[in-house]
Amino acid sequence: MLNNDNDEKRQLFETCQLKAKRVVNPIIDWTDRDVWDFLESEKIPYNPLYECGFDRVGCIGCPLAGTNARKRDFARYPKYKAAYIRAFDKMVAVRKETGRADEWKTGEEVFHWWMEDGVLPGQIKIDSEEDDTWET
Asked: Cα(58)–Cα(64) distance, rounded to whole angstroms?
């Protein structure tokens, strides 16, 4: 269990055997309304994206946020999408230079793989759960 997840099994007091620490989660049983009421009563500033309909705010393109959230992020912030693709281009170049080249030829191909938005050459796709047909 990660210390930053929102698993339903989280408890007020937990023990981390790996780090030999005791963890306290003081608002573990608070509802969203409880959190907002507290922020309002204490006049604590919050990220304005919550007022734009976001229910989770984190890193732009965070893989932990899920595919739909990443798609929303990159549609809203296209310069970040371009930055990710440039970084993937550099990764592809370094992998070629070091003899660890993959089937990816461009950063754009890596981005599409990472976004899980379609089947790229060399990937395997199952058409349906009942059908054992494989495409390559």
From this structure: 9
pTM score of the predicted model: 0.62
Task: Quote the CA–CA distance of 72 and 107 in Å, as a whole number.
Answer: 20
pLDDT beneath 50, residues of the chain: 1, 130-136
Strands (E), 1-128: 13-16, 21-24, 125-126
Helix (H) or strand (E) holding 74: helix 67-76
Dist CA 49 CA 59 (whole Å):
12
Residue burial 95-121, b: 16+ Cβ < 10 Å; e: rest: eeeeeeeeebeebebbbbbbbeeeeee
